[in-house]
Amino acid sequence: MDNDKVIQVEGLTKMFGDFTAVDAITFDVKKGEIFGFLGANGAGKTTAMKMLIGISIPTAGTANVAGFDVFKQAEDIKKNIGYMSQKFALYDDLTVKENITFFGGIYGLSRNVIKEKSDVLITELGLQKVANQLVASLPLGWKQKLSFSVALIHDPKIVFLDEPTGGVDPITRRQFWEMIYKAANEGTTVFVTTHYMDEAEYCDRVSIMVNGKIEALDTPKKLKKQFNAATMNDVFLKLARG
């Protein structure tokens, strides 16, 4: 595996019976890159991500994530990545502190490290006053930022974010992207799926999926030039229309 590339994918395919959800996609992601995995709902983004994080076995192709093979070393992949799902992987019936402690334990951190990281995380997020409240009582935006922070608690090489800004207001979306930039600046590779085309502008490179295939892949600037488009939304619309 190329040391500069933390994700390498070639011909990755996922079929459900006769339906091809992900159709022989090929791409790579560099260390410390913010890589946008874009497409409309149902384009195959989440299915592709599930293969990359080791929870769905591909039908065909090859993929290497954080130095591990998705077919043979799925458990090793899970230990070396962070993951934030569309519905946030937090437990509503646990407090903020209890959620952090629980996930720190899942990722194999010691009690002392969990305590240290918990204090830092709660302070950075400004959650001191609600640290002992149930997560169910938090506004959606706070849940979102807490979920992202928990996904980073074990200092993973890569963090996978599946539609992380869905349903939140523009201010919270901007704050969340500031957190993404901070993580990338500290060396974490960020792989983010979204159907918000304006968020593509925040990525170093983006791929655009249409009907299970990657139809375009480059920097936002180059894609806009290639498709003679003013915005990434215009690029997407041109691709969607064929």
TrEMBL record:
Keywords recorded for this protein, A-Z: ATP-binding, Nucleotide-binding
One Pfam assignment: ABC_tran
One Gene Ontology MF term: ATP binding
Organism domain of life: Bacteria
Keyword ATP-binding part of the UniProt annotation: yes
Sequence ranges assigned to domain ABC transporter in this UniProt record: 7-236
Name of this protein: ABC transporter ATP-binding protein
Species assigned in the record: Zobellia barbeyronii
